[in-house]
């Protein structure tokens, strides 16, 4: 038993939260040095799903001329059907609260079925165009399927695919790197509004889910997407110098978003939300300061300004560490 666990258990005893007998039992159990392989096995299952679906994609790409489109689509459809058959057969049915399969392998079978469904519909649209020029339908249909499976089978990985598909349907890429490097994002200012509206809708859905007690453990996923989408869209608009008349509005949007996620991160005790909220708020504050300072003449005090910069960044790092330590202390109490 490591020193940290020993101290934590001793603290529980000192606060009379556990009895002396319970303390001895906990100590004896930890001294056995038994550890679980559950996380490692699930990681290998997840990697197996990714490797299998990637292998399907490579197989299609390299043998598309020799196998034939109909044969590939038929094979995909059969595999998808088998996966969903076993999943529905062993599922407990839809429940508003958190549920799990008795066999964790089936959770990854649901994930494989949904990824293959996305591949099937995308390949079908690319080759035969059953939706014509309505390419959004090729994104919307697997998104709807993923939302259904995510809620029916209580699968967070599938829900992540569904939210990603929803963002793609409205023209967004939900990863920070893609958003920052997406030329269409800069060329079309309306994407900023779409991103913020989508993020707000995700927040509203979590509020509604809490009210009706519908899969409330999904809220962290929705809020994580909402935080990244709203914050990155606002920051992109803040640095867009072609939008000088509206940058202040996005500054207020980012400030309101940061305040909201500050409160939510404490309510959910989610350090991931808290850390990213601080990072995005810090970036936004510096951009706003830069845009304000560009209208001020520093020709007489520019040397003083340069000397103050190291102190400013060091102070920011110290403040960041202090905020994280205080947050960990609050959620531990």
Automatic annotation (TrEMBL):
It comes from the Bacteria. Residues 12-158 form the DUF2157 domain. The keyword Transmembrane applies. InterPro entries: DUF2157. The chain crosses the membrane at residues 43-61, 67-88, 108-126, 132-153, 158-175, 190-208, 220-239, 245-262, 271-289, 301-321. Pfam families: DUF2157. The keyword Magnesium does not apply. Signal peptide: none annotated. Keywords: Membrane, Transmembrane, Transmembrane helix. This is DUF2157 domain-containing protein.
